Amino acid sequence: MSKYGNIPIESSVLQEAMAAYSSPNDRISRLESDGQLIRLKRGLYVVDPNVSGVLLSSELIANRIYGPSYVSMQSALRFHALIPERVTVMVSATTKRARNFQNSLGLFEYESVPPKYFSVGIQQLIHENSYAFLIASPEKAICDLLITTSGLRLQSRRAAYNYLVEDMRIDLDERPSWDTEIFRQCAEFGRKGRELLFIENVLRNG
Fold first, then answer.
1. pLDDT tens, 132-162?
2. Quick one: which of 24, 40, 14, 4 has its CA closest to 131?
3. Max Cα separation, the chain?
4. Which of 24, 27, 76, 184 could make an S-S bridge to 141, C-beta 3.0–4.6 Å?
């Protein structure tokens, strides 16, 4: 089992690997019961890190549970060390309908964003040449959070500043430069264009 490392595995791959057993599905169930496999959702598993010897990546798992998707919003902001709070829910953006998945590793939430807007500001991060995952840039994470928060309206540049610093507690000084073009692109394709441009103005001018 350790050969799979921390890469999520579909049940069809496991069934093929266990074809020598009279009942591959029973063998998979036994491995899950013994704690060697962790069920992420129906038909998707990952090897327990005590067996694989490799730490699990919540970001990679989030990408694979429901896609197309990328890690975003508070989860991405915490990953980029821009907010102080520990994030207990792994939040992602997707072009599909919003969904939640609960498993033994935690809660994985998916917020729906417009398809044309989806691809703006995504980063692919490669970890030690062993696996890669998709995550929002800090700028895109802010855009996603803004457009998916129901009832959030920013009516001025001052309101945008207060939202970033007081509500989100983003340390603006932690990032020496912001790619404000992402806000302008998102304003064209997404919702709440006026609010996004207020945010862009704050980050561009300080």
1. 999 999 999 999 999 999 998 999 999 999 9
2. 4
3. 67
4. 76
CB neighbour class for 63 (10 Å; exposed up to 12, middle 13-18, buried from 19): buried
- C-alpha 177/C-alpha 204 separation (Å) is 8
How far apart CA 57 and CA 118 sit, in angstroms, is 22
In this prediction the pTM is: 0.93
Within the chain, residue ranges assigned H as helices are: 11-17, 24-33, 49-52, 58-65, 73-79, 115-118, 138-148, 157-162, 181-189, 193-205
| 49's tokens | 């890190």
Phi-psi category of 5—alpha, beta or left, where left has phi over 0 and alpha has psi -120 to 50? left
- Separation of alpha carbons 111 and 93, rounded Å: 5
Structure tokens at 87: 């994030």
21, amino acid identity: Y
- The burial of 150, by beta-carbon neighbours within 10 Å (0-12 exposed, 13-18 middle, 19 or more buried), is given as exposed
